């Protein structure tokens, strides 16, 4: 009985802490070298609603509005996919200093 209560308390605390980190993620995040901005609108479960505007090193300006990404609150990483052939078009890593690092897959066509 005590073990069940302890497990449920730990599980509840884990959910509360992940919800607190999710609230910190909502807002505007800058890309390194002033290459763009990522605006997180909402996080529900493991889905993140966001807008992305950035200029890759080679290529045209990329503007993605009202897109969804799979978000992992433990690692603070999100993955945006365009279609089933490019399941990891953009990998976003949220840093503690308010910045986001974007890694674009070779299969991404923007």
How would you describe this structure in keywords?
110 residues
3D structure, described in words:
With 110 residues, the protein is an alpha+beta fold. It has one domain. Helix content is 22%, strand content 42%. It contains 1 helix and 7 strands, in the order αβββββββ. It has one helix spanning 2-25; strands spanning 27-30, 36-44, 47-54, 62-72, 77-80, 90-94, 100-104. Strands 1-2-3-4-5-6-7 form a 7-stranded antiparallel beta sheet. Residues 11-21 have low confidence and may be disordered.
Topology:
Blueprint: H1 2-25, E1 27-30, E2 36-44, E3 47-54, E4 62-72, E5 77-80, E6 90-94, E7 100-104
Antiparallel strand pairs: 1-2, 2-3, 3-4, 4-5, 5-6, 6-7
Strand/helix succession: HEEEEEEE
Q: What is the arithmetic mean of pLDDT?
A: 80
Unreliable segments (pLDDT under 50, ≥5 consecutive)? 11-21
> What would you report as the Rg, rounded to the nearest angstrom?
16 Å
Please outline what is shown here:
The chain is α+β, with helices and mostly antiparallel strands. The protein is 22% helix and 42% strand.
């Amino acid at each position: 009985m005590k073990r069940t209560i302890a497990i449920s308390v730990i599980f509840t605390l884990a959910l509360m802490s992940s919800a607190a980190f999710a609230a910190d993620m909502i807002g505007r995040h800058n890309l390194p070298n002033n290459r763009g901005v990522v605006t997180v609108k909402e996080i529900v479960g493991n889905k993140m609603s966001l807008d992305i505007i950035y200029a890759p090193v080679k290529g045209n300006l990329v503007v993605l509005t009202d897109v969804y990404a799979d978000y992992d609150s433990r690692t603070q990483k999100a993955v945006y996919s365009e279609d089933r052939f490019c399941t990891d078009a953009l990998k976003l890593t949220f840093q503690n200093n308010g910045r986001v690092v974007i890694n674009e897959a070779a299969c991404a066509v923007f």
